[in-house]
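Run log, item B.
One chain of 105 residues. Sequence copied directly from the ordering sheet:
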Amino acid sequence: MATAQELYDDLVAEHLARPDVSMGRMLHADGLKVAGKVYAFFSRDRVVLKLPAARAGELVGEGTAEVVRMGSRQMREWIALREPDELVWRRLMAEAATYVESLGR
């Protein structure tokens, strides 16, 4: 089974094959960008994704994701995935890319 970092790196390579996706900086990590905005990055052995607040809450509620906090502030649209699961990570990274791309329209 791949480590979290290995799985993330594989998925990054897939996303970078799209002409509209690039790498950019988010906090202290390089992340995937679409429409000029970061939608995924890797930090502390987990992938962090931007999704609509309601969807993020749903994923946290079902135990698929964890809340992301910056200091004492809970980030409503950001979730963290710790357990490397290729199908879940692939689906949610694509969902995050679609969401963030829609914000730029």
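Observations after the first pass:
- Residues 4 and 93 are 14 Å apart (CA to CA).
- Residues 86-103 form the longest helix (18 residues).
Flagged for discussion on Thursday.
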